[in-house]
Amino acid sequence: MKKTFLITYLLIQIFQSQAVDFQDSTRISSSKFINFFTSPKYIISPFAFYMPETNVVLGAGIKRFYHFGSDSLTRVSNIAASVQYSLNGQYLLRSQYQIFTNNEKYYINGYLGYSRFPMTFYGIGTQIDMAKSEPVTFNYFRFENVTARKIGKNSFAGLGWRYFEMFNVSTQENGMMEKGDVVGNKGSRVAGLNISYLHDSRDNILTPSKGIFAQMTYSIHGKVTGSSHTFNRWQFDGRYYFKPFQKREDVLAFQGYGFLTVGDVPFNELAQLGGDMIMRGYFQGSYRDKNLLAFQSEYRLQVLKRWGIVGFAGAGGISDAMGDFTLKNVMPSYGGGLRFKINRKENVNLRMDYGFGNGQQNIYFFIAEAF
Q1: 195: containing domain
Q2: How far is CA 349 from the centre of its chain?
Q3: How far is CA 180 from CA 96, 120, 176, 177, in A?
Q4: How many whole angstroms separate alpha carbon 238 and alpha carbon 234?
Q5: How far apart are CA 116 and CA 50, in angstroms?
Q6: Any idea what DSSP says for residue 38?
Q7: Is the C or the N end of the chain the one with fewer CB within 10 Å?
């Protein structure tokens, strides 16, 4: 924990010292150093963080902005790539993209990644003991893409493919993973078809201030699609943003999220409560099961031109079956954070959040909002 605070403090001091020299991104800066690391078209960001499972992690990422439209109504597209390496020898390579073609006729969203990183397994279900967790390490290849066509104003429908392969699994001898006969504990190959509907009227993908985002995705996995396990999955993600005051840039945001599965679901495909996006404060995957329902809200207060503060709160729970959801399953999530506008033209924030929940707490340091 001390290392986490030290690294975070140093990063904040670096950005704070650079803020004086940053020019408005719509102007031409006389500093070649600043132009190299941030511009209206891209952001290059080195980073570092600490986790007990990995020791100190060092990395770097780049996010490139494109505008494929011939009109001002086509939203800005982006593609990002990053590399991470830990002092324990783990690594992660990944790339993500969100593309709007001219006049937003098509919306293309995808992910490509390869990693050898550890995770902490706490068990499955709500009855877990944080003191009895165990490390699980594996190689992981992931590809996912959805291509959707515009079917109405801000509405898209499309098909996609997802392929996840987990191999070279290393577990604790005679641990929960082995004794519990957890599905997929020797590895898994998940391949399936995505059927997706999306309504997206947000003014900005990375840092929205108004509009609605509503997405529903149905995924089918089986032998016919090349999957080692047969199961189906529903995902629902609804978000609403608005500015409560006309003369201020403050934003109030809400999100409802559902993750429902049925069938022979490998453990790495179960719903996971926690992480930097859903139910901040919980270690990602500390609670996992076949179904997850969560709701969260956030108030984003603009303090200065580049600086802001946020407060967030949420509630969520997991269950093996939808009929098992009760108020006893619901767990709280709350916290606050800082925002620094690293790119003013594209309105991109660097965020640092500190979240709490049910005896857990965690700090997050990322580019772009949680939702």
Answers
A1: 2-367
A2: 15
A3: 35, 15, 5, 6
A4: 13
A5: 16
A6: B
A7: N
Q: Are 160 and 149 in contact (CB under 8 A)?
A: no
- For residues 275 and 292, what is the distance between their CA atoms, to the nearest angstrom? 14
Angle at 135 (CA atoms; ends 161, 281), nearest 5 degrees: 75
Residue 323 to residue 50: CA distance in whole angstroms: 39
Would you state the structure tokens that stand for residue 158, as one six-digit string?
Answer: 């499309």
Strands 91-100 and 331-343: unpaired
Extract the tokens encoding 313: 């709160």
- Return the SS3 of 268: helix
Residue 39 CA: distances (Å) to CA of 34, 214, 250, 348: 8, 31, 24, 11
**What is the CATH number for 54?**
2.40.160.50
* Count of domains for the chain: 1
Higher pLDDT, 71 or 183: 183
pTM of the entire structure?
A: 0.79
Q: Distances from the Cα of 298 to the Cαs of 250, 334, 364, 369, in angstroms?
A: 11, 9, 15, 10
Residue 40 confidence (pLDDT): 56
pLDDT tens readout for residues 79-104? 999 999 988 788 999 999 999 998 88
Long-range pairs for 174-183: beta carbons < 8 A, 24 or more residues apart: 175/121, 175/134, 176/121, 176/123, 176/132, 176/134, 177/121, 177/134, 177/136, 177/267, 180/123, 180/124, 182/124, 182/267, 183/229, 183/264, 183/265, 183/266, 183/267
Q: How high is the pLDDT of residue 280?
A: 92
Tell me how far apart the alpha carbons of residues 74 and 100 are, in angstroms, rounded to a whole number. Answer: 7
**Residue 289 near residue 319 (C-beta atoms within 8 A):** yes
* Predicted confidence (pLDDT) per residue in 48-58, tens digit: 766 555 667 88
Residue spans of beta strands (DSSP E) within 67-122: 77-86, 91-100, 106-121
pLDDT tens sequence across 223-232: 999 999 999 9
Burial of 292 (0-12, 13-18, 19+ CB in 10 A): buried
Interval 337-365 mean pLDDT = 86
